[in-house]
Amino acid sequence: MQRIEAASNKGLILGVFASENEEGAPQFTNAADTFDKHISGKLRELLAISGPPLKKGKTRTFHGLHQDFSNIVVVGLGKKTVGVNPHENWDEDKENIRAAVAAGCRQIQDLEVPSVEVDPCGDAQAAAEGALLGLFEYDELKQKKKPVVDVQLHGSDGIEAWKKGLIYAKGQNLARYLMEAPANHITPTRFAAIIEEKLKSFSNNVTVHIRDKSWIEAQEMGSFLSVAKGSDEPPVFLELHYKGNSEANEPPLVFIGKGITFDSGGISIKPSANMDAMRADMGGAATICSAIVTAAELKLPLNIIGLTPLCENLPSGKANKPGDVVRAKNGKTIQVDNTDAEGRLVLADALCYAHSFNPRAIVDAATLTGAMDVALGSAATGVFTNSHQLWNHLYEASILTGDRVWRMPLFEHYTKQVTECQLADLNNIGKYRSGGACTAAAFLKEFVTVPHWAHLDIAGVMTNKDEVPYLRKGMSGRPTRTLVEFAIRLSQDKKSI
């Protein structure tokens, strides 16, 4: 055995499954078993004497076992072949791998080891996602930064799945970056410039339009403009066209994202506590734009259009006042009784505009209501949809990604609460406090005429405290990977939608 001083400064993460009974020896993955044989069973021996059986998501580190690796981190994967858990609505094997690999990579990062090879653990895509998602932390504005760790696949099993997992994770990390950065760094103009730069290398099949205030006015997007006018930052309507299917007249999937780069609540101002988190109120825009960047990198055979109305919601002498009436692009008038219900105002005009593309389906994402957070917390994104087919694709996609969705009602019961209005066609808040996420969705439905539309309220999943073990504390970037997986499934569905 080589002395640790002679070992290369590289880490290795290896997985072990729990035995079926608590007293039994752990089961090594193929990669761990091969490595252990290479060092004459030393790893298995050390693991047995170094403590109790390794629990799911926990790590144990060994030094100096091999000249190629200064640090070996063994990670607990839980029981083998658990598969889809019908009670949890996700693939438990994939989630266990993501969590375990993330924990192992963070251990390597804490040891300031510059590179690591990762055991695919039977699912190279999940392992790659866990590695990159687990290492991400927004520290761009700090002098002291986390050490950079170069992540590589150990061996050659599942190399294509590994590459796919890296692309998925990079997409979610882009959304996390955009959401986490301060609002004075990610203004509407800057947001659009970052996305344009990310898509520059795909210029052959991606077109980016950064629409200014004069264009928004010409489109008669009075609802969107009413929110933007309270801020000195100019609004931007970012329009992305990804053409992955060259067939003539192939209708696009339209993604719409709420892009409020800072939300003070306007005249109906929010409490000061935790208002800083409202820098991430453009989470819908961040996730849908990141999903399109990911789709372009994956070369999905699908046409996608992304629409993101970007602005700030601030109080000023020009801001919306409670009781004001504004007119949306489709001519409907809206009584603004709460200026903090601004997300639905900017989305209304984007939904109207989306219909001009003869869309195959429209999916919008928005950190829309605190009521959604109260209803589901961070367990799942709430989905309101008029289409069983869209719902099925979103649901099945979320089982694979572990970034779950849950269907919510679009009853006429909620529609009446926003359409029975004193001064206008619609009120931007419901008559009653209860069911706030549902009345917000009912409001948006008034701007939809296509048969396949889904609204994703992502307010509850905007941040991560400790609920998702492979994400650090902060803005989550959810549900970017589910949107990508959904787009893949839609590209394969040529009949139902």
UniProtKB/TrEMBL annotation:
InterPro entries: Leucine_aapep/pepB, Macro_dom-like, Peptidase_M17_C, Peptidase_M17_leu_NH2_pept, Peptidase_M17_N. This is Cytosol aminopeptidase. Belongs to the peptidase M17 family. Pfam families: Peptidase_M17, Peptidase_M17_N. It comes from Phrynosoma platyrhinos. Homohexamer. It catalyses: L-cysteinylglycine + H2O = L-cysteine + glycine; S-benzyl-L-cysteinylglycine + H2O = S-benzyl-L-cysteine + glycine; an S-substituted L-cysteinylglycine + H2O = an S-substituted L-cysteine + glycine; Release of N-terminal proline from a peptide. It comes from the Eukaryota. Residues 338-345 form the Cytosol aminopeptidase domain. Its EC number is 3.4.11.1, 3.4.11.5, 3.4.13.23.
